[in-house]
Amino acid sequence: MYTVSPASTVLDALKLMADKNVGAVLVMNGDTLAGIFTERDYARKVVLKGKNSKETTIGEVMTGRLITVDPTWTAGQCMALMDEQHIRHLPVLEHGKVVGIVTNRD
Q1: What are the start-end ranges of the H helices in the chain?
Q2: Side-chain half-sphere exposure of 88, counting CA atoms within 13 A
Q3: Per-residue pLDDT tens listing for the chain (106 residues)
Q4: Distance CA 48, CA 28 (A)
Q5: 97-103 and 89-94 beta bridge pairing
Q6: C-alpha span between 27 and 30 (Å, rounded)
């Protein structure tokens, strides 16, 4: 699980994603989950809107409203929820703290 802060630039997040070969990073404000930034966010909220990756912060373009689950959820339940909600990444929170992420590749 890789993270950036809302103040990070889009370029910094993209470099991390490329280096780690992942399609998304969680956006953390300290220990609190603030959102997620995905390749889809980049395409739709940066490239198509003509924003500069070096100057745009993650906080400006991240997805902030997230659907989350707790560790008691089974893989099957998570996959069904992701399919139903048309999402690819599902953060796992325990007592309000991020403990992992389930992706549609899992």
Answers
A1: 10-20, 39-41, 58-61, 75-85
A2: 13
A3: 899 999 999 999 999 999 999 999 999 999 999 999 999 999 999 999 999 999 999 999 999 999 999 999 999 999 999 999 999 999 999 999 999 999 988 7
A4: 25
A5: antiparallel
A6: 9
Round to whole Å and give the CA distance between 103 and 106: 5
pTM of the model: 0.92
CA distances from 42 to 5, 36, 49, 50, 96 (A): 16, 11, 10, 11, 27
Task: Identify which of 22, 64, 61, 18 has the alpha carbon closest to the alpha carbon of residue 42.
Answer: 61
- Calculate the dihedral angle through the C-alpha atoms of 13, 19, 25, 31, rounding to the nearest 10 degrees: -90
Nearest CA to 67 out of 98, 39, 90 is that of 90
Alpha-carbon span 2 to 103, nearest angstrom:
13
